[in-house]
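Problem: given the chain below (614 residues), write out its structure.
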Amino acid sequence: MRTIYKIPAVWIVAVVFFLFSQSCEEYLEESPRTVFTTAYFETPQGIQDAVNAAYAYQRYIYAPNGALALFHEGTDEWTFGEQPYNNSSGDNLQHKECGSYTLTSGNGAISQIWNNSYPAINLCNGIIELAPNASGLTEQQLNTILGEAHFLRALFYFNLVTQYGAAPLDLGSGDLRLNTTPFFGFNRLPTDELLVKNYQAMIDDLTFAGEHLPTMKEPDNYKLTQAAALHMLAKVYIFRHYTLAAQAGDVDSAYVAAMQLINNLGTYGVELLQNFADVFKQGNDYNTEILYAVERISGNNVNNMYLDPTGIGGYECQANNNFTPNYQQAIGGLSLIDGRPLPYQRPLRKIAPTKWLTMTCFADKVNDSRYHGTFRTLYRTASVNEPGTQAYDDFVILLQENGFEIGDTAWYMPDTQEEADAINALNVRYRVLGPDDWYTNQNRDFMMHPALIKFIDSLRVTFNDASGRPYPVCRLAETYLLAAEAAMILGRNAEAADLINVLKRRAAYKPGLNQAAVDARYANIAVTEADINLDFILDERSREMAGEWVRWSDLAVRGKLYERALAHNPDVTGLIGESTGKYNLRPIPQAQIDAINDPEREKFQNPGYSTVTK
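Solution.
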């Protein structure tokens, strides 16, 4: 039976007291009806509620609106879309500031990860400290609970450190200790020493998790396993290699962790799927390639904690909607799509692909199936209304008057401009847009561009709903990429090419082709050791993982953000002439700075960002 992770009321109350960025006034306004003590951690039900709450907090980090901006926009892959371009209010302004690098400490999006990580970390601290005292747990149950808490704590810190830099380990009661009283300090200095401790804490946590979590995951949920721990351990080692906290042996350790998983797929019950598109196919969410995903339950708004699933708030999964263009756009007064049919998602138009991603990175759209497994390029006439209703019948008549039937092509975005020109020369009735006409913030005639389809959700309750699908965080394909990167750094380019070619061979596969055809496609995209360098690996990460919550940190931590964003994204105007590298980190949120009980609060802000102190 699928596990549903929701935050029990007891933890909502308790965690409020742990959030050190809360102001004193906010703290005093809390009026809990019941007082809970840490003794609840020491009961089997209490400790399991705590673990479920720690899992559930991941929903605030993975796939809500503000965090989508942080992880994607302003990179070589993604920019802000038409709505932020035209409307500079509310969350649209947050997207535009992230995408253009005009960020300030008051930007609402940057608070998304910050404000929701520390309560969860403190919760994990409590689980780790007090779970051994919980009576009635078997040794296996205790090991699993502790492994989950160590892994989740590492993952929360990973996102904090890669976005903001050094992150406090001491929340008021000592490093990695449970804090149960309001705390208005900020144990972040000196940041260089703290960063070393941050990475070591993550490595220690993930090592522990890899030794105590179950070996295999269950078939219908994403409770954590050793495979996910090995994957994240490899990733943390690779990332530390690129920072000032680097230690000798980091790359060797990353390679060992990744290859332990790759060489023992059967032991861990994981494998790559044959068809790239099937990894993200709805209904196949619990497949063997996804090692860990943040769970949401389709159509279950209560347990997804969606007070308003049509809203654009703090934990709704908007990965299905934010990358969607305006397929409702009318031309000559006629829209060929009536309303917002569930398969096409809500056209929020917050995030758009760069032309580099769609046309240069995915230059080969014939032999590599990942482009069409990543993007929608075809829309058919459809209606949000049910057949038999008056609204549906009226739309059918309107289509017929203009030479269309339900199901006819409405919008088509061919792979090349030449193909688009050839089709348009036939005077077809439907809308054909070649790459020259796809929306960018420099070319706004049509509000259409290829739409990310990895996370589409056709089982939502209403057409404006957020998604209830699990959101992948750790995927085996990335494990191969991490192993390849480690091999490259170690000077073993031939081995790196072999690892990448595993993914290339999968990319050549297309359902319906015979083996000879697949082999021919693979021959056209396979790589050799001469192709391998960091830029190539970053390109391959885009082809494999576009839209999967990794790109901004991929570039920033590896020191490639400025170079690649400036080369491939014309909207990153704030990076032009910026020489201090400040945008490799986000600003510490202003609310956090204001809450610190220190007359020299500005010293806690990241370099280059101005801080308004009280």
